[in-house]
Amino acid sequence: MSRPRHDRTPASATGRFVALYVVLLVLLAANMAGTLLSLGPWAIPARLAVAAGMVAVIATTFMRLRQGTVLVRLVAVMSLLWILFLFVLTFADFLTR
Amino acid sequence: MTRTPEHTVIVAHQFENLEQQFDADLLGMWLFLVTEALLFSGAFLALAVYYHQYHDTFSAAARELHWLLAGANSVILLTSGLAVALAEQAADQGRRRAALLGLLATIALGLVFLAIKGYEYHSEYQAGLMPFLQQPFAYDGPNPHNAMLFYNFYFVLTGLHAAHMVIGLAVLMVIAVLTWRWRDGARVARQVRIAGLYWAFVDIVWVLVYCSLYLVGR
Amino acid sequence: MIRDVRTGPAPRHHYLNAGHGLASWFLTKDHKRIAWLYFVSITGFFFLGGLAATLIRLELITPNGDLLSSDAYNRLFSLHGIVMVWFFLIPSIPTTFGNFLLPLMVGARDLAFPRLNLLSWYVYIIGGLFTLIAAVAGGIDTGWTFYTPYSTLFANGAVLAAATGVFIVGFSSILTGINFIVTVHTMRAPGLTWFRLPLFVWAQYATSLVMVLATPVLSVTLVLLAVERVFGVGIFDPSLGGDPVLFEHLFWFYSHPAVYIMILPAMGVVSEVVSCFAHKRIFGYRVMAFSILAIALFGFLVWGHHMFVSGQSIYAGVAFSLLSFLVSVPSAIKIFNWLATLYKGHVRFDAPMLFAMSFLGLFLIGGLTGVFVATLALDVQMHDTYFVVAHFHYIMVGGAVSAYMAALHFWWPKITGRLYPEMWARVSAIIVFAGFNLTFFPQYILGWAGMPRRYHAYVEDFQLLNVFSSAGASMLAVGYLLPLIYLLWSLRYGAHASANPWNARGLEWTVPSPPPEENFERPPRVEHEAYAYDTDA
Ligand code: HEM
Ligand SMILES: [Cu+2]
């Protein structure tokens, strides 16, 4: 009654929240432990990838993007696209100097 | 809006029904978060450009940061993210006490985070790694000038994040009071949901700040 | 036409007499009254910016710097730019006509967030106060672009106050943008599908997207600037290895899209006016709507064309040059479609139409010279000359301000319930058009001949054209002051307007002039699009 059906979180969701919280902790630990390995040129991409995974978990679960309407998901994707514009075109300069 | 008995549905005058109002609030908050994301991305972009140019110096400078302490702080902030998600769920189901508890836990964890962050700043200040406000810069690694640039970003990015935490905490405190009063259940659930979105976003920013400042250079 | 359809009895109750006293204005949540708050404040800033421009043009009548020191001159053009860009042109159409009309056009009682709407006006005012403080406390001489390291390490003056003002007013844009986007998505009346929306709404929507996506990057750039200047936290400081070109990237990531914040709403206005005064359906409606979105999108991919001589990599320069050409495609489509709308229409030349036609001609010239300066090799020569100054004034003043004036006259009867004196309005439109061209066309020639911008003195050969330009500026001043007089006059003495004095289509013309507080008695059901001129009475 308080929120539109698509946005509601049933009692059964508690388990999912806790499970994904644990996933987040594992990812964090993995990223921290990763600094002890010598990954060479892969180190930075690997660390950023794990962080991106954590961001994805928070966004889809805690922010309920998974149940979000198409519009809200579009908005989230839009922000990523625009951040991409910013980075790609700026680096188009700095990488070709 | 005036005080009404429970279960009375109040819709702001410009809306036709509660669902429309909820959709509007949610979309508005998401758009606001888009602006926040772009705001931070400008600062991250600058950091990335300089990391690209001064990779070795920046990595050396990053190793001076308290990465384990900040890692523990990450755990605290992620936990607060769980707490607020559970508070949203509880508010939605009309469980006032549980919602309030979740919110208070979130606030408490947020305060602990800030305290630890403050301790970190303090120890960097003592180590002479705060290269502004006429402080001496005591960094003894290679290329101290470029390293200074790294610390500047460290303070700007974490400072910007901390400022958002403070705003988020203030919002959560107001929402906690509203939850405690519980005048209009639907409204409270909506407010907790919207505030929770903001808090989750602050979480996301921290994940990225932690990764790019503390971990990438190690 | 025998009976005068333009006049009619005034409604007994409307938003203007729904409340009295200061609080009913300063605490209002009615989008129509908030539009008035903005209207009065941006008009004030417009004339403040105009005052600075007058002094600039006075100085430039003679080749020697005799009226103003170079320092004072720098402060004046910086004030002029900052005020005109952020405190007039960016808020101009969205916060006044957008605020007033958007709910009416989508058939809603108000915007989605009325309180936020009021807040954004207060934020605007606070930002404006900071800028005024900066002006009084010595002004700034960085230009409106705040380039580092000059602005952070060397410039003296109230840079912090000015940057704070701009930072704050950015949030006003952001809040307005969010409000509009949410309103268009969630508040449309039953039956009002996306492709039945007036193009004015599409334009406001696209503008709002640009506001929301670009402005935050300006905010963070100004934060970085402020910490560097105030706390000495080097960010762009070359002595730490920082890169001032990075500042330019961040600044123009906002500021090129910002020029579309100024022009897109103008395009929306012109679509409404052209279609109404040609009494024809707008030609190629869907293409028009998609071009608006395309312009908003491409506008984000071209910012590097401001940096061709900054030290940016030449490869990036080529890419930005090519991408810039892309923008002209949807812009040209729009020009063709407006012309096609006029073709074989029964065109009436009332003042709004005269202003809209000014827009068409001047925007065309400004846009075409935009392609000149977007051509990398040519811009190496043109950059920082009066050619660029002429280019952007053709678009921002000739285009955007003309459209603002068109909107002002077109919707004046709706907003105030009064008719303005048509003859005087036509005189004003013609003076503005002539004065504008006399002011700015010589600047193309001056720039082509190599006169640099931002100096208070110049070589004697340039004097004749500069005198023309200053003479034109005084005509412009007359042209813009006239409406101030006759519009104020009409508030008291103008005839009462009917609900639909232009025989226009669109939801806003179905409610009385001025509209009631709640806009519609009951939510309207929309059966057809906003340009149903063919189904004529
Ligand atoms: C549509 C609305 C437009 C507006 C409001 C506008 C406004 C401006 C402004 C304000 C500047 C000067 C910035 C400064 O240096 O202070 C400028 C410069 C420039 N504009 Fe436009 N412009 C528009 C369209 C275009 C188009 C369509 C193009 C290209 C296809 C274009 C290309 C350029 C270029 C390349 C410059 C930089 C020139 C230089 O500094 O050397 N503009 N414009
Ligand atoms: Cu541009």
Q: What would your notes on this structure say?
A:
The complex is a heterotrimer of chains A (about 100), B (about 220) and C (about 525). Chain A is mainly alpha-helical and about 100 residues long. Chain A folds into 2 domains: about 10-65; about 70-95. Chain A is about 70% helix and about 0% strand. In chain A, helix 1 runs antiparallel to helix 2. Chain A is flat and about 55 Å long. Chain C has one domain: Cytochrome c oxidase-like, subunit I domain (Cytochrome C Oxidase, Chain A, Up-down Bundle). The two termini of chain C are about 15 Å apart. The mean pLDDT of chain C is about 95. Chains in contact: A-B, A-C, B-C. Bound molecules: protoporphyrin IX containing FE and copper (II) ion. Protoporphyrin IX containing FE (HEM) binds next to helix 8, helix 10, helix 11, helix 12 and helix 13 of chain C.
Task: Please write out the topology.
The complex is a heterotrimer of chains A (97), B (218) and C (537).
Chain A (H helix, E strand, L loop, with lengths): L12 H22 L8 H20 L7 H25 L3
Helix pairs in contact in A: 1-2
Chain B lengths: L17 H36 L1 H8 L4 H26 L3 H31 L17 H38 L3 H31 L3
Chain C lengths: L21 H5 L4 H29 L10 H37 L7 H23 L13 H5 L4 H28 L12 H33 L12 H35 L6 H14 L15 H29 L8 H24 L1 H7 L3 H31 L5 H27 L14 H31 L44
Helix pairs in contact in C: 2-3, 2-4, 2-15, 3-4, 3-6, 3-7, 3-8, 3-13, 4-6, 6-7, 7-8, 7-9, 8-10, 8-11, 8-13, 9-10, 10-11, 11-13, 11-14, 13-14, 14-15
The structure holds protoporphyrin IX containing FE (HEM) and copper (II) ion.
CATH architecture of chain C: Up-down Bundle
Rg of chain A, please? Answer: 18 Å
First and last CA, distance of chain A: 59 Å
User: How many separate domains of chain C?
Assistant: 1
| Overall mean pLDDT of chain A | 91
Instruction: Please state the CA-atom Rg of chain C, rounded to the nearest Å.
Output: 23 Å
* Tally of individual helices of chain C: 15
Structural domain count of chain A: 2
Quote the CATH topology of chain C. Answer: Cytochrome C Oxidase, Chain A
Straight-line distance between termini of chain C: 13 Å
Main interface: chain pair and counts: A-B, 48 and 56 residues
Name the poorly predicted regions of chain C: none
Which small-molecule ligands are present, each listed once?
A: protoporphyrin IX containing FE, copper (II) ion
Overall geometric form of chain C: globular
Low-confidence stretches of chain A: none
H-E order of chain C: HHHHHHHHHHHHHHH
Number of strands of chain C: 0
Order of helices and strands of chain A: HHH
Q: What is the C-level CATH assignment of chain C? A: Mainly Alpha
Portion in strands of chain C: under 5%
Largest sheet of chain A: none
